[in-house]
Write a structure and sequence with these properties.
heterodimer; A: MetI-like fold; 2 domains; about 0% strand; B: alpha/beta; D-Maltodextrin-Binding Protein, domain 2; 6-stranded mixed sheet; 19 helices
Chain lengths: ~325, ~450
């Protein structure tokens, strides 16, 4: 994904000399002479097709199939109900609330991750003494697993011993029930998620900033532009492919947030953080309602596909490669 | 041409290489499973969900059982949380991966029974003329169906009410009686709050459905039609009975008085409330009796325990045991099932249950355990540890205090928990409970339809 979206575009293309050119055509000719291309294609694609069909295509089709039934205690489809599950699901208030919560979460995480990541990268891109230390610190969350960061933040959010509320008391600010107040719980998981995504985002942005040719800034300086102008008209366009990449990656990965939710709120309080993926898990593996979980999975898949499509259509136009 | 040929060769080399590795791994795994059988004993795989002290104690019983006899070898395997295991059992049954004996939680009784995957314990009880009277009636009631024992209650717990005697002493407050009513608790909670000038919160209740269900049970009212599913298949939930509303009104009264502290729900909530309680910031809370030992370690004789509260003006109906029971799977040969039964008997004998209660805080299910020297000494030293056991012992089982015999109760718990959170946040009691009831009725309806039951 990384290589296909960004650096490959800049990689120097091999120069075609007359010699290599003729070799290539000879090779192609050879290939065309072979009648059993198809045979080789199947041979080489076979294993991955096999793996994909067993682990991806079959489960996908099966999920769709299950979503058209009611499933019994063993998860077996017993009563065919057509699209009734979808109709019921989209009329369920708490599911619509989950949709909304997921929207808020995903947009919140993506936005803040990009803003803060870019900010940190911009700072780290300056020539300041000791900046290497901060560069290391900024990337460090990449090495922290979901469970560790969840526990770490749980301690900070703890109502009686958490540092956040101790700070609030010290500063005479109102104490916040981070994980028991439905509104603040969402803020809390977004904060944690942004923090977790930061290391990776920072690293990508930092690399992008470093690769913006210095000559552009020099020319801009000569033209007498200020640094804000340079940011909007040089930096941003030059790193726009990276921005797009990070936006897609963060959005999709926050759609899939599971461990964090499971460890921090378990979907609560009052379903405020019951995101779509977590809901699927609960309905399938806690409540044992496989039909409902399958229906939700299909809806989620459609949503993710749509969003990715829109992103590619809209953003790709504005990306300045 | 030549490059294609080497590619072709490499392809086969890789394929063969991968196959060799897979075969080697398979062989290794096969050898590992065979290793136990080579001892000439019958292997009995036992799935459990005990962590911490429970796991430690359980492992020691397994070790002792394996040492004491040479016919069976019990292999205990930790399988995660209660919820996970239900699905694991249902999905592995009939395969080599499934266990011979497994532990499954209180509210899964109906589902396990209906699965048809288990051998009712009554079969072994009748065959061996096992004295079932030694098991406390209130403890086994949840695992009985029409007079037949389906499973053996193993780690029993009940809801209990805890209060901090030191806090009460400090502010000169009379402790609640051992069998308190709602208003007894409200009085103490309000006094704690007012006499400490808000320094100490009066009470809390985790938004935990089990606690709600037991308040309703103690009032002698069922949560579904057909007597909680004991006399027929449940088709309608009843979360809005006067008893249910009264229970929530009790909490609401304390919320309005400002003495109630809301910790939310889930593992963090129970950890936070006991931390608050132990540090003297909270006077009263309700949780599983399994917590008694842990609280006692810190508070010693300043720990106060009472029976679960009952509505004013009514006699306590008694409450169901929570925790989990042992089930024998029927997909294993008779010899293996016999081994599972032998081990079950061993786990619930008077001595082991006494040790189990002393080490874990779960309530001994064997009547004679309280006469074992270990528990006798413990109760003499700290009488408060005996309170929840007394509550269990005096419970006369009936259809409202023997749990719910309904498939898929977990979604009901989720719905009730949401209602509790809403009520704690100030929303209307009747409205919140009605929403929960409607939500679960839909689940119940489609579940009955899918499983061909009416």
């Amino acid at each position: 994904m990384i290589s296909s979206l960004r650096p490959s575009k800049r990689r120097p293309q091999p120069q075609l000399t007359p010699e290599t050119g003729s070799q290539v055509t000879a090779g192609i000719k050879n290939f065309e002479l072979k009648r059993n291309d198809k045979y080789y294609a199947w041979l080489f694609l076979g294993p991955s097709l096999l793996v994909l069909s067993i682990f991806v295509f079959y489960p996908m089709l099966r999920t769709f199939y299950l979503s058209l039934f009611l499933t019994d205690n063993f998860g077996r489809p017993t009563v065919f109900v057509g699209f009734q599950n979808y109709v019921n699901l989209l009329a369920t208030k708490s599911y619509l609330a989950s949709l909304q919560a997921t929207g808020i979460y995903v947009v919140g995480v993506a936005t803040f991750t990009i803003i803060v990541g870019l900010l940190l990268a911009a700072v780290a891109n300056q020539k300041i003494k000791g900046i290497e230390f901060f560069r290391t610190i900024f990337t460090s969350t990449m090495g922290v697993s979901v469970s560790v960061s969840a526990i770490f933040w749980l301690f900070m959010f703890n109502p009686s011993i958490g540092i956040l509320n101790k700070l609030a008391v010290g500063l005479h600010l109102p104490v916040v029930n981070w994980l028991t107040d439905p509104h603040w719980a969402m803020v809390a998981v977004i904060m944690t998620s942004v923090w977790m995504h930061l290391g990776f985002t920072f690293l990508i942005f930092f690399g992008a900033l470093q690769s913006v040719p210095k000559t552009l800034y020099d020319a801009a300086d000569v033209a007498g532009t200020n640094s804000r102008y340079q940011f909007w008209h040089i930096t941003l366009p030059m790193i726009s492919p990276t921005l797009f990449f990070v936006a897609v990656i963060t959005l999709i990965s926050s759609f899939k947030s599971f461990g964090l939710i499971d460890l921090m709120t378990a979907g609560g309080p009052t379903n405020a953080t019951n995101l779509l993926v977590y809901r699927v898990y609960r309905d399938a593996f806690v409540d044992g309602n496989y039909a409902l979980a399958s229906t939700e999975s299909i809806v989620l898949a459609v949503i993710i596909a749509l969003i990715t499509l829109i992103q590619f259509k809209l953003l790709a136009k504005r990306v300045n490669y | 041409m030549t490059s294609l040929k080497t590619g072709w060769q490499r392809y086969w080399q890789w394929l063969v290489g991968v196959l060799v590795v897979l075969l080697a791994l398979g062989g290794f795994a096969y050898n590992r499973t065979r290793a136990h059988a080579d001892t000439g004993r019958t292997k009995v795989v036992f799935w459990h969900e005990m962590k911490g002290p429970g796991q430690k104690a359980l492992d020691s019983y397994v070790k002792e059982f394996n040492r004491k006899q040479s016919k069976y070898e019990v292999v205990a395997e930790f399988e995660g949380g209660y919820n996970d295991v239900i699905q694991k059992i249902l999905n592995t049954h009939g395969t080599a991966a499934s266990p011979a004996l497994f532990q499954s939680m209180d509210i899964s009784t109906s589902q396990m029974y209906h699965s048809g995957f288990t051998t009712p314990m009554q079969k072994f009880v009748d065959r061996d003329h096992y004295d079932l009277d030694q098991i406390i009636p209130g403890a086994k009631a949840i695992d009985m169906r029409q007079g037949q024992l389906l499973a053996m209650t193993f780690n029993a717990s009940q809801t209990a009410l805890y209060y901090n005697k030191a806090v009460l002493r400090k502010y000169g407050i009379t402790p609640p009686p051992v069998d308190p009513t709602y208003s007894d608790i409200t009085r103490v909670a309000k006094e704690i709050h007012s006499k400490s000038h808000g320094q100490v919160k009066g009470m809390t209740m985790e938004a935990y459905s089990w606690l709600f269900e037991q308040l309703v049970a103690n009032a002698g009212v069922p949560l579904t039609n057909h007597d909680n599913g004991h006399t027929g298949n449940a088709t309608k939930a009843d979360f809005t009975s006067p008893a249910a509303i009264k229970a929530m009104e009790w909490v609401k009264e304390n919320i309005d008085a400002g003495d109630f502290m809301n910790f939310g729900s889930g593992g963090n909530a129970s950890a936070n409330e006991s931390a608050s309680f132990l540090s003297g910031h909270l006077g009263i809370f309700m949780q599983s009796s399994a917590l008694t030992g842990q609280l006692y370690k810190t508070l010693k004789n300043d720990l106060g325990v009472t029976y679960y509260p009952r509505p004013d003006g009514t006699k306590a109906n008694g409450i169901a045991v929570g925790g989990a029971a042992l089930w024998i799977a029927n997909d294993k040969p008779a010899a293996v099932q016999d081994g599972a039964w032998e081990f079950t008997k061993f786990l619930v004998n008077a001595q082991n249950q006494a040790d189990w209660q002393a080490k874990t805080g779960y309530l001994a299910v064997n009547k004679q355990s309280k006469d074992e020297p270990q528990l006798k000494a413990l109760f003499k030293k700290s009488p408060v540890l005996a309170v929840s056991g007394d509550q269990l012992a005096r419970t006369k089982p009936n259809n409202t205090n023997s749990g719910v015999f309904v498939d898929g109760w977990v979604p009901a718990r989720t719905a009730i928990q949401n209602a509790m959170q809403q009520i704690f946040a100030g929303e209307d009691i009747k409205k919140s409970l009605t929403t929960a009831e409607n939500t679960y009725n839909k689940v119940l309806e489609s579940n009955n339809r899918a499983n061909g039951r009416n």
